[in-house]
Amino acid sequence: MVRVHVVTRERLNSGAIATLRDRIFGDLILPDDPRYDTARRVVNVTVDRYPALIVRAADAYDVIQGIEFAREHDLPLAVRSGGHSASGLSTTDGGGVVDLSRMNAIDIDPERATAQVQPGATSADLAGHAQPYGLALSTGDSATVGLGGLTLGGGIGWFVRAHGLTIDNLRAVEVATADGRLLTASADEHADLFWALRGGGGNFGIATRFEFQLRPVGTVLGGVLILPASREVIEGYLAYAPQADEGLTTIADLMRVPPLPFVPEEQHGELAFVVMVCFVGPADEGQRALEPLRALATPIAEMVAPLPYPEMFAFTEAGTVPHGGSIRAGFADTLPPDAIDAILDAMENQTSPLGIVQLRGLGGALARVPADATAFAHRDRALFVAIVNVWMDPAEDAAMHRAWVTNLWDAVWPAASGTYVNFLDDDGEERIHDAYPDATFRRLADVKRRYDPDNLFRLNQNIPPMP
Ligand SMILES: Cc1cc2nc3c(=O)[nH]c(=O)nc-3n(C[C@H](O)[C@H](O)[C@H](O)COP(=O)(O)OP(=O)(O)OC[C@H]3O[C@@H](n4cnc5c(N)ncnc54)[C@H](O)[C@@H]3O)c2cc1C
What we know:
Keywords: FAD, Flavoprotein, Oxidoreductase. The chain is of the alpha+beta class. The chain has helices at about 1-10, 15-25, 35-40, 60-70, 125-130, 145-155, 160-165, 190-195, 230-240, 285-295, 335-350, 365-370, 400-410, 430-435, 440-450; strands at about 25-30, 55, 75-80, 95-100, 105-110, 115, 170-175, 180-185, 205-215, 220-230, 250-255, 270-280, 300-310, 325-330, 355-360, 385-390, 415.
């Protein structure tokens, strides 16, 4: 705490702070504010940073004030929507934070099936607002993830195979830029910026509003199928998931079985292959699409039924509790037997019972968008693979938990390539580059040069401006 006061006194005089406070409609939260300790924290409980100030913006005007203040006082600037950044990039030591969590309004136009959404809204907020109209957007798998960070990285969600990425359903973005302008980027306006915002992350400005095209999704066939954890089952899943009926998106977690009511008690805590399923379309077609999955092995337990789409988030609720985390992820076309064996072996030798290896079958609508249409370009890959360690107590040995992830990743990486910017941790510059093919990275650096030449927005998976 002392550290912050020093930074604040040295770099910011009280007159400048008072002027900022007068200018904004939202809240300016300083280290002596009783709300500060909660406001500085993010979902990853191992991230313990002390910003000099937090602008909890009420609107786009406040966002611009935050940007201008950071620029004028040469303050590192973090941007926060839902706070789920794995490496805690949405907070900072000694700098400023523009916190968009209050900017969470959602306005649905049922006639046009569109939604105007502020970045602090979450996946569950949008799903809940759109549900009464029988509409939905494919966002992530977890309720609390912010649409700000999720959308700008791409958004691999519950119906990515049926309706593409979140950005494939994005019509326009309102953005506050480094020079304090408020622009609308779409296919018709600032098309270069619109391209970059669809996968380039928070590099180009602060998104203050999104316009999404919603899809007619009310009820889905959704649930969980728990299969035995074996090399044969995993191989079967890898072949099946990217080729399944396009209405079906699956997310498979190799994990310890949680104590769910529909799972026999003796299975609780055992290693299993837990496949979450979400089918968009008639339930009987969905059941047929699931038959090959059920045929891989006798399920240990199953709970699949027609349900309102927002209920899908119940299956990932445990992961949304603030926690310590470490992740490595990438794309693959398949996994060879030795990588699968390494995964099974690591899962038998976990440092935390909450660690998982996640496999997602891709393809479908995601793959039909040309690779150069958006900054997210890994569209032809069959699979997404993520190794995730999770622990609840920040006092636990984080280095040990992280080593479990990186050691296993070293064994899996030869089968994978590329990565997804939203699943990057503190992987380093080279891995940020891996998130984009070379030509995409160069084009992003060029757009960065035009919209943020001084790299004001650098507390992110950073793409430096092209010189
Ligand atoms: C439990 C969990 C489940 C997840 N599941 C999925 C999933 O199913 N699919 C998927 O695609 N991803 C998933 N993710 C990854 C998630 O999409 C990213 O972590 C995303 O960046 C989080 O967004 P946020 O707004 O919550 O995070 P924040 O920490 O607030 O933001 C992350 C970064 O995004 C940038 N940013 C955020 N908002 C803005 C804005 N308005 N303008 C400019 N830049 C901004 C900033 O650079 C910031 O550092 C998951 C993450 C977690 C922790």
